[in-house]
Fold:
Amino acid sequence: MAKLVLGMALSHGPMLSTPPEQWNLRAKADRANKRHWYRGRAYDYEALARERGGGFSSQISVEERARRHAACQSALARLAEKFAAARPELVVILGNDQLEVFKEDLIAAFNVYDGAEIENLPLSEAQRAKLPPGIALAEHGHCPPGGAVYPGAPAAAAAIIESLIGQHFDVSRSARLPQGPDRQHGIPHAFGFLYRNVMRDAPPPSIPVFINVGVPPNQPRVRRCLDLGRALLTAIAALGEELRVALLASGGLTHFVVDEDLDRRVLDAMQAGNEATLAAIPESWFGGNTSEIKSWLPLFAAMQAEKKRMHLVDYVPCYRTEAGTGQGMAFAYWE
Structure:
């Protein structure tokens, strides 16, 4: 029977791959954004600054940004070491797609990739030119120069799909990712960031599991994400081989408005094994990119069922404007 040897969850935002003195490139976009999602409501930048009362100026100096960026890099390095020490033979990765690969033609609530190869391909110059300010600069953080091809796990993925269907999760599946001039070719950045920074571009066979946490209207709700974790655990255990399996989650925490109280509520609940606290957070609070917290929920539920303990490596709120925009970065593992 397969053995779950490691759980790991971490943020993947472009600020992690951008020199801290250049975080202001995204700050310009923040000031122009008319829909900053914060605790169930959307604000333009000026209204957000009034709502939060300022007070973030001391946290956006270049020196403070550099300190927090360095703390994030240290946490990433520790997770990479932990992953290598666990020696997994199969990796299941929970992440989202931000209309990079899957467009309006099909956005599944849950999708399991069962292809033999996983391509991580750089954007074309034309595609890079269309990106928001500060995003192209961070591409190296989720895609190596020239791209890469990683091994998939078709047989294990097919078995997981069959098990999930049997547990009443009607997942879709993809043996290859869609292509076209209107979309990225290759695995989205939520997955690419883990391949690069945790698995160092040399992963064992892996299975990407897409969760549509952020594209309305078919986002899975909190309790459904928790249930998915328990169903995945059952599916992994039933693989029938003595495989060492790692379960990884990519995304979060709050952004592009940093909400330290919400981040701490989530992390404290996970450390305490308190599922009820997570389930009580209003669905409307998971708007915008803060929705990526939901990618952590199946991992948490699976680890709870396995009675594995969460170890928080670090939580680093990274700010870039006076209104408190940026990203709450978190790095954790379970064993």
The longest strand covers residues 310-319. The two ends are 18 Å apart (CA to CA).
